[in-house]
């Protein structure tokens, strides 16, 4: 009986020691797994330079909405860069035009959010709300039109909000045009110093592509300004087809493309779905702004439980806003490509 008892106790002791030792190893393993998970979460993008931009942006005083917008733009850039790497591996970008366009798009993103290191870059920072009080219109003509519209009495508060979105959209298009123009000017300087004739041919094609893009952008800008001028003086037409600036642009472009009546009608229906997607994104942006303001207020109270709940809600809204932002930009890219394939009829400027 006693030998059995001693054997049982000895076995139990070994099991306890093994469990304790194993627990230590398990804890260490869990810690390593958690550390790896944290590192993985910190790597937002598969392209190194995009991660660097994202990390830099988080150190700046960008609003909550601007950060989610930047994230969506970087996601689109990542998608395009990874697609380009596949094309390059298959030898499908011999003239380098797709690579050049990627660089231009990246320059636009950096300038848009004040991440290009230029002192004169205007970016909305240190503000939570992206409303009319905090944004700046670069063109004095736009400021004049906006002030006229505000004081005209022709617009309700809701219509003024809608009109301001159109002004901001136009302002952004103008900024992108100026960045592209600057890129083309610098490329042309390099182009003058080319020695190899074969290299010269390739760069000529790239420059032609850029000039075509410039023409398309300036044409869109001129049309947009005419629309804003008319709106500021006459107010909104109740029978207008669409309300969102991006959708209005797409519809104008589609009507000038070589679409059949049936294709145009199908495109109109798709634009309605796209507009609904944009409105949903705007809704989440507003929710995110409100959540951010509430979180900042709660953090001042020191109530840990309350802070934790608000942080969770804010994180959830930020993720949803990023996701919707990416879907909107992806859909916009797809619709724009469809119009291009439809064959826009461009007049020489």
Automatic annotation (TrEMBL):
GO cellular component: cis-Golgi network; endoplasmic reticulum-Golgi intermediate compartment; endosome; plasma membrane; rough endoplasmic reticulum lumen
Entries under SUPFAM superfamilies matching the protein: RAP domain-like
GO molecular function terms noted in the UniProt entry: heparin binding; lipase binding; low-density lipoprotein particle receptor binding; receptor antagonist activity; very-low-density lipoprotein particle receptor binding
Transmembrane spans: none
Keywords associated with the record: Receptor, Signal
GO-annotated biological processes: negative regulation of receptor internalization; negative regulation of very-low-density lipoprotein particle clearance
Signal peptide: 1-21
Superkingdom per UniProt: Eukaryota
InterPro entries documented for this protein: A2-macroglobuin_RAP (IPR038003), Alpha_2_MRAP_C (IPR010483), MG_RAP_rcpt_1 (IPR009066), RAP_D2 (IPR038001), RAP_D3 (IPR037999), RAP_sf (IPR036744)
Domain Alpha-2-macroglobulin RAP C-terminal: start-end pairs: 137-349
Residue span(s) of domain Alpha-2-macroglobulin receptor-associated protein: 18-121
PANTHER family on file: ALPHA-2-MACROGLOBULIN RECEPTOR-ASSOCIATED PROTEIN
Name of the protein this chain belongs to: Alpha-2-macroglobulin receptor-associated protein
Organism: Microcaecilia unicolor
């Amino acid at each position: 009986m006693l030998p059995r008892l001693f054997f049982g106790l000895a076995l139990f002791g070994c099991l306890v020691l093994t469990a304790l030792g194993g627990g230590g190893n398990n804890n260490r393993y869990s810690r390593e797994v958690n550390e790896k998970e944290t590192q993985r979460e910190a790597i937002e993008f598969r392209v190194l330079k995009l991660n660097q931009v994202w990390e830099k942006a988080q150190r700046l005083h960008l609003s909550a909405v601007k950060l989610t917008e930047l994230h969506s733009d970087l996601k689109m850039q990542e998608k395009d860069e990874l697609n380009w790497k596949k094309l390059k591996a298959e030898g499908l970008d011999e003239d380098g035009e797709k690579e050049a366009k990627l660089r231009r798009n990246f320059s636009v993103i950096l300038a848009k959010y004040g991440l290009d290191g230029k002192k004169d870059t205007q970016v909305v920072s240190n503000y939570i709300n992206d409303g009319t009080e905090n944004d700046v219109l670069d063109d004095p003509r736009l400021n004049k039109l906006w002030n006229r519209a505000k004081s005209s009495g022709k617009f309700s508060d809701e219509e003024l909000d809608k009109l301001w979105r159109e002004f901001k959209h136009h302002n952004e298009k103008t900024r992108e045009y100026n960045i592209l123009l600057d890129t083309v000017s610098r490329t042309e300087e390099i182009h003058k110093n080319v020695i190899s004739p074969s290299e010269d041919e390739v760069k000529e094609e790239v420059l032609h592509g850029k000039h075509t893009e410039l023409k398309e952008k300036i044409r869109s800008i001129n049309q947009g300004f005419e629309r804003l001028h008319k709106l500021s003086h006459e107010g909104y037409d109740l029978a207008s087809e669409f309300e969102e600036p991006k959708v209005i642009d797409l519809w104008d472009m589609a009507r000038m493309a070589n679409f059949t009546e049936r294709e145009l009608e199908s495109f109109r229906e798709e634009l309605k779905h796209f507009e609904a997607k944009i409105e949903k994104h705007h809704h989440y942006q507003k929710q995110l702004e409100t959540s951010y303001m509430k979180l900042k207020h709660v953090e001042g109270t020191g109530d840990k439980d309350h802070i934790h709940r608000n942080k969770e809600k804010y994180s959830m809204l930020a993720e949803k806003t990023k996701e919707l932002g990416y879907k909107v930009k992806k859909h916009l890219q797809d619709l724009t490509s469809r119009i291009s394939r439809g064959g826009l009829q461009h007049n020489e400027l």
